[in-house]
Amino acid sequence: MGQTIAEKIVSRHAGRQVMANEIAIVAVDGAMATDATAPLAITAFREMGGVRLWDPSRVVLVIDHAAPAPNEQVGNLHTLMRAFGREMGCVLYDVGEGICHQLMVEYGHVRPGQLILGADSHTPTYGALGAFAMGVGSTDLAAAWLTGQTWLKTPASIKIVLSGQLRPGVSAKDIILFLVKQLGTDGARYQAIEFTGTAIRELSLASRMTLANMTAEMGALTAFVDLQGLELPYQFDVVQPDPDAVYSTVYSFQVDDLRPQVAIPPAPSNVVPVDEVAGTPIQMAFIGSCTNSRLEDLHAAAAVLRGRKLAPGVRLIIAPASKQVMMMALRDGTMAALLEAGASFITAGCGPCVGTHQGIPGDDENVITSTNRNFRGRMGNPRANIYLAAPAVVAASALRGVITDPADVL
Amino acid sequence: MTVFRGIAHVYGDNIDTDRIIPGKYTKTLDVQTLAAHALEDLDPAFASRVRLGDILVAGHYFGAGSSREQAALAIKAAGISVVIARSFAGIFYRNAINIGLPLVEAPDHAILNGHQVWVDLGQGLVIDETAGCIYRATKMPPVMVAILRAGGLVNYLRQYGSYEAADRV
Known about the structure:
The complex is a heterodimer of chains A (410) and B (169). Helix content of chain A is 29%, strand content 19%. Chain A has helices spanning 5-14, 38-47, 72-88, 100-106, 138-147, 172-183, 198-201, 205-213, 295-305, 323-331, 334-341, 391-400; strands at residues 23-27, 30-34, 59-62, 91-93, 115-119, 132-135, 149-153, 157-163, 192-196, 222-225, 249-254, 261-263, 271-273, 284-287, 315-318, 344-345, 366-369, 385-388. Chain A has a five-stranded parallel β-sheet, with helices on both faces. In chain A, strands 16-15-14-17-18 form a five-stranded parallel β-sheet, with helices on one face. The N and C termini of chain A lie far apart (51 Å). The mean pLDDT of chain A is 97. Chain B folds into two domains: 3-138, Aconitase, domain 4; 139-169, no CATH class. Chain B is 32% helix and 19% strand. Chain B is an alpha/beta fold and 169 residues long. The interface between A and B is large, with 55 and 43 residues.
């Protein structure tokens, strides 16, 4: 019987043929933790009797969730991580380097066909590179630090075929918001998703990361974006599904007529075309997060805002995905255009997406954001309302002061 | 311990980890701080009302969203003995077992708030004693049963040293 991508990668890492729903002990190729999850993992690792990491070169720590530290408590957790990183000799990206998932890809800590654990729920982002990447909690990660292994139930797979070509001004974020609505918040619960089809071929690596990233919002364990059309600065083998691989469901969508999408509070699956919520007043706008804060996202915002000014009473906060992204945006004039329009830049990192610092909305405020979750309280205030959209929609809304289709202002 | 008896605190579907423990409270190693804010944005009275041994009951897809293990820790530190739901999100499910918080997936349960509930993990049974209803639980993978029996993943690995060694036992 043929195998899906997930079955092939799990089999390779288990050292035997494994099919969906089988439990397997697998070798891991990398383990990533952030300041939200590493401190608990360090505690668990010590309690397990851990003295050294199974392979320090494959362990990555990133200080991005509350960076720079907003208070002494978080400051001390960062100190704990740095001390652990020095002691163990592992890789550590400190304040301002950027968002964990961006750095894992930028610095080549993940390659096609690998099996990676990340102590963050958006770890499936690496599916943009064809890796089996799953989010785990701190103790599971600590166990991988100790043993170089984890256990998993091999997931069944869903195939999503995307054909056609996106209209100008419509992006991968609009595709994935549309899909989260179609499948629902647990529509892919504990499954792998394979994205394929002609619409994928046109997408940049950044856009593919956006697509894989929000499979977490459908409950997926992991995701794979077909590597066709993707150029990488190194040689790689493509793990292809067998023609007779078995899928739990196959979905096919045409993207040609897709309009910009908006997820209205309080669930990422409450998605409507932008015109259904156009005119809703917003007070805060945010472009950031592992979903949408790469150079092409800043370009999309600048295309809307260059030579213009934000609407009175609207603040636009931007947290680039990484220092490298910020440098590129600085060098090509994107940052200047956005600053002149009235935007504020904050340290590369997760910023206000996770509600810890650097832009917590006030009561009854409406926020439009390029992030991934609009749960109540997500951005730090349960009385604020969070709308999720693509960077172009966020920028157009910040320009008008109300939720706006970018086509109306471009 | 595989048998629990306690008062049910019942909530609905899609309770995400941000509502179990908001991100702003997760940056700590102190579980009592987590317990003090458990379910704060869902039910502000929960932390003060919950008693040691009580049972948390939810609908579909409990624990959606973030990988924060603090969500499971907050519930456990608040005194909850076992969580029953119609279904769980994958990462939350693993996290709870890993820290030694028992979970029961009972797809058909209709337990009501305040009812006395009896759970037998070994038998895979959930009983709403007040209503006189019995529900069957989904079977847990053997590796999880072993981790839970050890009291969590830390003890499991202290005991066996590796997954492979444990698998041979």
